[in-house]
Amino acid sequence: xxxxxxxxxxxxxxxxIDVLKECIESVLAQDxxxxxxILVDDFSPNAAVPTVIAQYxxxxxxxxxxxxxxxxHIVAASNDGVAAATxxxxxxxxxxxxxxxxxxxxxxxxIDRHDDVDYVYxxxxxxxxxxxxxxxFRKPDWSPERLRGQMYxxxxxxxxxxxxxxVGGFREGFDGSQDHDLVLRVTERARRVVHVPExxxxxxxxxxSTAVDIEAKPYAEAAGIRAVQEHLDxxxxxxxxxxxxxxxxxVVQRRLDPAVTVSVVIPTMGxxxxxxxxxxxxxxxxxxxxxxxxDHEAVEVVVVHDTPTPSAVLDELREVAGDRLVLVPFDRxxxxxxxxxxxxxxxxxxxxxxxxxxxxAISQGWLEQLVAxxxxxxxxxxxxxxxxxxxxxQHAGHAYYxxxxxxxxxxxxxxxxxxxxxxxxxxxxxxxxxACAAMRRETFFAIGGFSEALPGNFNDVDLCYKVQxxxxxxxxxxxxxxxxYESRTREARVQEWERLAVVARWGVAAExxxxxxxxxxxxxxxxQELPDELFEPIV
Length: 539
Known about the structure:
Layout: E1 6-12, H1 17-28, E2 35-41, H2 48-59, E3 63-67, H3 73-84, E4 89-92, E5 98-99, H4 103-112, E6 117-127, E7 133-137, H5 144-149, E8 157-160, H6 161-166, H7 178-189, E9 192-204, H8 219-235, E10 239-243, E11 250-254, E12 262-268, E13 272-275, E14 278-281, H9 282-292, E15 299-306, H10 311-321, E16 325-330, H11 336-346, E17 351-355, E18 359-361, H12 366-371, E19 379-387, E20 393-395, E21 399-401, E22 404-406, E23 427-428, E24 436-440, H13 441-446, H14 459-469, E25 473-484, H15 496-506, H16 524-527
Parallel strand pairs: 1-2, 1-4, 2-3, 6-9, 12-15, 12-17, 15-16, 19-25
Antiparallel strand pairs: 4-8, 5-9, 6-7, 6-8, 10-11, 13-14, 17-24, 18-25, 19-20, 19-24, 21-22, 23-25
Helix pairs in contact: 1-2, 7-8, 9-10
């Protein structure tokens, strides 16, 4: 008889009997037959647990009971299941959770479309004690940066058996984050990772579970940080992993090589504005803050200024930036794209940062965190987290869907983590705003820079699509934080032809790959309090 397609590995330790039965029944209800269910009883104190499993095994030969004679905890029990697996793929199922009937058939279909798939994950939700489901987690497509900050793939995870064994299976000492550690090691070598955007797994929310309380397993935090750190070390990423805004979220603080030169390109006409009741020259304060809040020495500031810019403003810039300043006069009609392109041509840095003149850096090391991910050769563009002056979110990555271009999570407050940690975890996104973004110099020229046919709006959207077309990743960097003052108050002058020009060139998917529309929502409580004129499109 041919081996099964899937080996479902389920470590078992003293679950309620009715819950265990529901778990097993959910596997028996699959509309895909080529599976085996390996239940490893980790010396449960309730003798009824192995008895019930044995009864199911007698009724269906695809079910196997392994009884441990000592309690080895979840890593040891899971490895016993991996060792016994005969399937091409291992599917991980907890002893109290449920698969939907079409779970395995949907995963099999995804695998059949590509012969090099090594890891598949699906969307999930939670199921309460009353059997009702809630809290659907609509996950992004493969996002390696997000996996470093959060075990987002979680349930259902299906991994090629040979690769699981090649990397050594589950590792002792990572209890509570053993799945995260395993998936990090598998995806480092995986040829292809596939996301099935359907809820195929119900995670049971019971007392003591992280489905109910993210702080239920504090030991998992230390194990998760160690798993991420070892992953970074294996990949040669010069960074330190640490705790994030809440349990289960991690921060990766990268170190930027001091030898890397960075050019910050700022277009301006030297205007001033009221900020928190005080009038300030925007570009001067932008430059002052960006230099004060970076420790990186090899930084030049390229200011592309319209000829009407007051000479006093240029003098102030010379005083603030000294010999780091490069002034580039611009005497043509306003064209944001052209001004940035001209600035980059005058820049000498290995990395270029595009920066609006109406921003203020907040986080110390904002530049290092923004630029350092570009050391990874497949990262083409990075963008920062921007706030309005009232501490609400203006930008946390773009989302492109339904023939529109959107700022997800707009008006969430600075202290909110967002749905499923979106605001506090660095992650892949479809696009970022050019109000603060960074690229390698060679990438900028390879993709042709900004399109000067889009002088005012959507030029950054077009740039992001070009990065994607080059096969490169775009990252939202949650640890690079700035204020963006004027975007809330300037008049939106968007012409329909601008949007249509981008749509004609690139099209727009029904759903964003990384931020599904039902997740990409503004803070509705805040929206109800705001006047309509504050709802500007991406510009």
